[in-house]
C-alpha cells in the first residue's frame, strides 16, 4: 500500500483514528491524575586537588581530578553512602531503594558532580540530597587518603605526619526544597498520549486495510476481474425506503443508472444480448435494486423491456412495484397460465413477470427446458429481458439459469464483497459458459465533490438531491391474470 492509498484509507476510517486519539488522550489524563507527584532536589560538588600554587602542579592536579571524577560519580549510590544517610535521617526506606532515587552525573571535561535526589516530599528531597553530598565527600576523601606505610612496633612511637587525601570535595550549590514536581508532566503526558493515539490509529488502519480484501473503488474491481465496470451506483441511505429512481431526475443514483444503461447498450455493439441475468456473489449486494432500476431506465428510454423475477428463494420485485406476486414465473413454468395472462405493467412502459408462488424445487425449475422456452418467448416479444436471479454462492439456482441467458451482470457491493467471493462467483459463471458482460459497483460512497459533482456547472439546480420517486402503480388485474393467480394459490 503506497502513501496515497494509505491516506485514502485514513480518510475512510477516520472514526478509528478519532477513537484511538480519544483513548490516547484519556490514558494520558488518567496517568497524570493517578500518578503521585515526585520532587527533585539538586546539589553540586566541586572536586579540587591539594598542592602548591605552582602552575605546573595545578595543571597536573586539574588533569588528575578530571581523570578520576567519573569514578567518583559511581560511588554516590554505593552502600557506603546510602546506609549512613538512611540512619542519619531515619528514612523509612532501604539503602537499595534510596540508591534508585539518586542520580549522579559528572559532565565531561569538568571537575563537577551533579547529584539529584527524587522524593515525594520536597523538603525531604533537599535534606537527602545535602546528606548524600556530605557523606559522599567524606567517603571519597577517605578512599583517596594513602595508607601509612610504617607498620612495625619499633617505628610506631616515632613522630610521623598523618597522610592527607590529595583531593577535596566542596559543595558549590546546596539543595533547596523544590517548588514544582518533576513528574507527572501533564504536557509531556498529553503529547505522548496524542502521539500514541495517532500511531495506534494508523497501525489499526494499516492492519485493517491489509486484512480487508473488499473493493473500495471500481478501478480496483476492474483490475481484479478483468471485466469492464459498466456502472458505479452511489450509496443512498433512502434507497431501502425509496428503491425506485426516475431516470428523468438528476440525482446521483438516477445519473448512475442512466450511465449503466448507456454503457450496457454500447458494450456489446456487434452482438447485443437480449436476455441479461443480473446476479451477485452473496445476498445484500443490491442486485434486485440494480435489476429494477436498470429495467426502468431501459423502458423509459424507449426500449421494450421485460423484468423477470427469477429469485425464487426470496422474490422481491413484486413488492418493490406493489404488484401481485402469487401469479408469475412459476405459474407459467408449471403450465397453469400463459405468459400474457400473468404479465403485469407498471408506469413507464415496463413489463414485469413476477416470481409467482415459491416452489420447493427452484433449482430444477430454473434449469429446465420449459424455463428456456419462456425466456426465448420473452426475447421474441421484447427487445431486452432483464432477469433478477438469486445470489451465486449460497444456492445453485443461478448457475443453471445463467446458462440459458445471453449475458450476465455481476453486482459487487463496495467495501462489502471480498475478492474471494467475487473470484468464486466469476469462476462459477465461467464454468457453465456464461458471458459476463461486466460488473456493477453498487453502494459506492461518493462525496459531494465526487465524479458526478461536476455536472452541476451545466445548470442542474439542486443536483445531488434525491427527488421523490415516481409511484409505479400497476394496471388493474385482468380476468385472465386474476384467474391464473387463483389457480396458482390452489
From TrEMBL:
Its EC number is 2.7.10.2. It catalyses: L-tyrosyl-[protein] + ATP = O-phospho-L-tyrosyl-[protein] + ADP + H(+). InterPro entries: AAA_dom, Bact_polysacc_biosynth/exp, LPS_length_determ_N, P-loop_NTPase, Wzc-like_C. Signal peptide: none annotated. The keyword Protein transport does not apply. Residues 274-403 form the AAA domain. One of its GO terms (molecular function) is non-membrane spanning protein tyrosine kinase activity. It comes from the Bacteria. It holds the Pfam family Wzz. Its main location: membrane. This is non-specific protein-tyrosine kinase. It comes from Streptomyces yaanensis.
